[in-house]
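In line with agreed milestones, work has continued on tokenised descriptions of protein folds. One protein thus recorded appears below exactly as we store it:

>
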Amino acid sequence: MAGVPGANDVIGSSKNGISHHENSGSGHSKDVNSISSVSDTEGTEEVLEDDQQSDLRTLAELICFEEVPPKWYARLGEFSPLFKPSFSEIETECMEVFEKKKMETKKILGNFDGQISLSVEILRCESYFDPSCCGDYLCLSAHFIDENWELNNWVLHFCSISVSGPSDDSLHKYEDWGILRSLEDWGIENKISALTVKNDNCNNELVEFLKTHIQEKMELQLNSKLFCVYCCGEMISVMVQDAFDKIADIVHKVRQVYTFKTDYPMWFLKLLNLQEALKLWAQGNLSSRDVTHSRNVPSPEEWKKVEGVCKSVENIYKVTESEFFNETPLTPNVHLCRLLKLRKSLAKMSIDSDSFNRTVVEDMLKKFDKYWDDMFLLLAISAALDPRLKMRYIEFVCSEVKDWNGNSQVAVVFGAIHKLFDEYVVRFPLQYNQQFIHLNDHPKEKSDLDCYLEQPVLTPSLGFNELAWWKTASAKYPTLSQMARDFLAIPVSLATQSEAYYTVPKPADEHIVCLKPDLMNALMCTRSWV
């Protein structure tokens, strides 16, 4: 969430009323310094009323689209004494802005002829200032690539939820969350191709609940199945946390002699704190009598265990920080090669480590391999749709993973791609351009999938944009480009760089969740639609 602007940046004054400046960041024409200040001598009461109504709409648009906290309305009197709307008036105006924008958004989704991927995130607020805001919140988002080949991530539904509850009442619990009602309201039940969640027991139940309902409505999918995607960032975080859990008792002892600089719930910060403690221990600063007197401190053997785990976690951090976590979401075609790098790093650590740390790393590998097996088909299909990789890279990956029947896996991927393509041919018959290639004077009919796979792979280049490439190539591969557009929109990770290392649910915005439910939902949605 963007930082909160200062009052002077949000609310300005203009004797000539609202200033109309182009805002390139949001696509809206209202400038953040556009609230007018009208004196008693300027114009009639009717003009004054019109100006204030216009200012009210401008303020509502700032709140809805520019992430201005709604509570800033209380300071309006400092800048425009005659413009003092009540919060109720601002709330009503914001809801009108939301409803108007929702109609436009609904029309776009209704006319969209591709598949849409969903993601479900559980956010948490732990406010010390307003306990009534504390709790869990559900964020339902739609991910799709539009006709201009731009990747969109739109919030469709945001609400307060109760995660806890008896498992036998999960049906009613998930119905209360309103996901199915939201999909029906948006009219996209038959366009859902994938669902991305974080991997825990609650989400596993939710996945089964949604799969049962969504698969009844689906128009197109491999074997009529919904692709279930587990968040890659969450898998890495769980893997690291489990490693730290194995030395939890020792870490408790470390904290008896070294005070962590921060307890913020992010695993890389825990790594940095432990590494600093290890440096001090190596220098002898944490073993002198005045430091260790009457305390249960780590033994040298225990310090070595901490050191081994930290080395393993540091290697994971180096790979993930450079390969996975970006400020902008990655398309799924790049994840297979990056996960392969991570697996090779884990495999090497399992060989080079001592017996204790080898056990830790082997447990990491088990979790990683479970994720790899569950996600391989989706990631392989997405990678094959990358013109730099294609099936050649799938063959390479399968040959690199030990204890795998590589040829069998390649055949599964190849068969799945062709089956999916055949389904797209049925769905988009007008876009299916048959291509004829003459071989030995005998015409042979080939699909654009066959032609695409037969073309040489592109040489990797810095700054390559696969979406821009497919936009240009869509005329040459009309049906396959539809398939690529759907698959490249599937989010494999829900975490960007600033969120990837959390060991607790991602925090919800206190400025939003303290509002009434309808307004809370409206602001979360409209701010993502800009």
Q: What stands out?
A: The longest strand covers residues 135-145. The two ends are 14 Å apart (CA to CA). The first helix runs from residue 7 to 10.
